[in-house]
Each structure stands twice: as C-alpha cells, then as structure tokens.
Design a protein that fits this description.
GO terms for molecular function: DNA-binding transcription factor activity; transcription cis-regulatory region binding. Keywords: DNA-binding. It comes from Kribbella italica. This is AcrR family transcriptional regulator. The protein is mainly alpha-helical. The protein has a domain of 120 residues. The protein has 9 helices and no strands. The protein is globular and about 50 Å long.
Length: 177
C-alpha cells in the first residue's frame, strides 16, 4: 500500500484537529505536545516545527475554534439574520463539545498574557459578529451571549449535547431557553 505524502499545510490541519481534541480533554496546562503529535500521527518535533511552541499551537487552536463558531453564525445569518437562527446554529455546535470546551480552556488560561489577549479579542469579535449579523441591541446580544456561555458550560459538564447525562436541574434550567 502506498502512503500519500501530505503537505505541511495538510499536516498542520491534522495537528490542529488533534489539538482541538487534546486541549479539549486536558486544557492548556494539562496537554503535552507529544500527546497532540501522537493523535496527529506525527513526531513531537514536527509539531514544534509547524507551530513553534505549545502556546502558539494553543493560540492557533483557539483561533480555529472561534473561526468555526463565527462561520456557523455567518452561515445561519445568510439564510435568516436573526438571533433565533444564530441560536439554532449554536445548538448544532453543542454536538461538537470539544470546540466549546477549548473555548472555555482559553478563558481559564487567560492569566497567560498572550492567551488572555487572544481570548478577550476573539470573544469580542464573536459578540460584534452577532450584533453585526442580526442588528440586535447590546442588551439582546448580551442575553444571547450569556445563554451561549451557559450552554457552553453545560456542554462541558456533558448535560447538553450528544449523550447528555440526565440532571433534573439541567432539565429545569433549559425548559424556557
């Protein structure tokens, strides 16, 4: 069997996908680049050659996650530019728990100056994207973002999303969302 040789860009994509999984499971501090390399099927030095440092890889991963969230919103708004449509798009993102958990890990690692700056910047961009796409007021957007963060935390706890753990309080909390 002949193995197809991938370009550096294609390998970089594989490493980013592996990083989403690894950082989603263990967070920034708890993830080692050799674990990401193993998941991607490459060597740890190759990961460093592609991304420089673990922090640069985490930042690239955080950027990718935020890009995917914003793209989901843009796609939804192309069909119907309102908060309900964007909410439906976000509900689909709940099926991709690892994306949302990486976002939370970015917030949690914000004491690291570069990560904090990136987390604040990208969250602000998501906020502005929601406002720009829908024309929602600051108050409406705040409620939308707050609900999204609640759902993100609940996805991290695995009480929403694929195969949710049954919790009475979660059912009660989600009843009127």
């Amino acid at each position: 069997m002949t193995r197809t040789r991938l370009t550096a860009a294609e390998r970089g994509e594989e490493v980013l996908q592996a990083a989403i999984i690894a950082f989603g499971e263990s967070g920034y501090a708890g993830t080692k680049t050799d674990e990401i390399a193993r998941l991607a099927g490459v060597s740890q030095p190759y990961v460093i050659r592609l991304f420089g440092t673990k922090q640069q890889l985490f930042l690239a991963t955080l950027e990718r996650v935020c890009d995917q969230i914003e793209q989901a919103f843009r796609t939804a708004a192309a069909e119907r530019a309102d908060l309900e449509s964007l909410g439906d798009a976000f509900n689909k993102l709940l099926e991709k728990r690892e994306l949302l958990v990486v976002l939370l890990h970015g917030f949690a690692a914000s004491a690291e100056p570069a990560i904090g700056e990136a987390s604040r910047t990208r969250f602000g961009q998501i906020y502005r994207t929601v406002r720009d796409l829908t024309g929602a007021t600051p108050e409406e957007t705040r409620e939308f973002m707050a609900t999204g963060m609640l759902l993100t935390v609940m996805a991290a706890m695995q009480v929403v999303g694929p195969n949710p753990v049954a919790c009475t309080w979660a059912t009660d909390l989600l009843e009127n969302l």
